Amino acid sequence: MQLDIDIEDWPAGAWDALAQRAAMAAGAGESLLANPRLMVSLLFTSDAEVHALNREWRGRDKPTNVLSFPMLGRDELAALGPDGPPVMLGDIALAHQTCAREADEKGVSLDHHAAHLIVHGLLHLAGHDHVDSDAQAEEMEALETAILAKLGIADPYDA
User: Domain 2-150 - what CATH class?
Assistant: First the structure.
């Protein structure tokens, strides 16, 4: 998977490298994300920008930590062969202030929380969800936890 990363309104840091590591781990944990043809746009931005995107595209007038905008359905992704031109899987946007606040509340580093949200967003782009049923949520959380373990990040759902 190729990442097109844009960083605005985030503190200085190795966000590019973090995103690349998270994407590689996600591809190792969800085989559909390992296709070399896939491209993902990843935006590290402000709460204000994510708030505007959330309002415009989801009808929710508030910021959130991460937004994912898939451009392929899961069936299309599964049918995509490894050879051919690049294919846009989708877009992800991370809101700095919300991510930083959540990391502080959880007692984890911003790096670890951002990696978790990148993995979460990539799984959404691959067709995983957590809103329709508890079983769906448990499956997605287990996949996230396994992927994050590959990065040496503790289970974010362990209460």
Answer: alpha beta
